[in-house]
């Protein structure tokens, strides 16, 4: 999906809005993170006489693998970035955003960039995840009959002194 920002800055079009599905199946994501379906995106671009204000909303259904207990959970992630765009954004040698040479912004690529930047550095199934049992290897939240506080045998003499 391309948005013609250059056309808007020349005054040919004051505003533009729409929605689309961003199919990002061929894109790479970090290990433990995957999209369940194409991301849905909506945009609104308004030219104020100097710059184009772009509001983008990206919603995606994800499947993540918890970093601590390795269980897979489904999550909906939502990103709502805003950009101020002008001719200098695509007329430079190395544009920061995915512009074409003729001033069109690739919104699908922008959605991918926003999802990639918005992925948390630590993927957890829940904020208080306890991880895996060090004895049996099962998730602690699933429950097990292992002794959790086995302790260090070298300190057993101190336990005898306290009892």
Shape: elongated
Sequence of secondary-structure elements: EHEEEEEEEHH
Quickly count the domains.
2
Determine the number of helices (DSSP H or I, runs of at least 4 residues): 3
* Helix coverage percent: 10-25%
* Unreliable residue runs: none
- Mean of residue pLDDT? 88
Based on DSSP secondary structure assignment, what is the total number of beta strands? 8
The biggest sheet, with number of strands, parallel, antiparallel or mixed sense and barrel status, is: 6 strands, antiparallel
Q: What is the CA-based Rg, rounded?
A: 25 Å
End-to-end CA span: 72 Å
Structural class: alpha+beta
Approximate strand percentage: 25-35%
Explain this structure to me?
- By secondary structure, this protein is α+β, with helices and mostly antiparallel strands.
- The chain folds into two domains: 2-129; 132-163, no CATH class.
- 15% of the residues lie in helices and 32% in strands.
- The longest helix is centred in the last third of the chain and has 12 residues, at 107-118.
- The radius of gyration is 25 Å and the shape is elongated.
- It starts with a strand and ends with a helix.
């Amino acid at each position: 999906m391309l948005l013609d920002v250059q056309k808007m800055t020349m005054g040919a079009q004051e505003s533009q809005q729409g929605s689309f599905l961003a199919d990002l199946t061929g894109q790479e994501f970090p290990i433990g993170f995957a999209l369940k379906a194409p991301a849905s995106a909506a945009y609104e671009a308004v030219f104020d006489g100097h710059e184009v204000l772009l509001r983008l909303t990206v919603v995606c259904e994800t499947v993540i693998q918890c970093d601590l207990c390795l269980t897979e959970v489904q999550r909906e992630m939502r990103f709502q970035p805003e950009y101020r765009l002008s001719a200098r954004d695509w007329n430079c040698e190395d544009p920061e955003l995915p512009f074409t040479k003729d001033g069109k912004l690739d919104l699908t690529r922008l959605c991918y960039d926003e999802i990639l930047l918005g992925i948390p550095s630590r993927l957890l199934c829940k904020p208080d995840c306890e991880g895996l049992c060090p004895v049996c290897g099962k998730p602690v939240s699933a429950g097990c009959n292992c002794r959790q506080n086995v302790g260090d045998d070298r300190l057993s003499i101190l336990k005898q002194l306290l009892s």
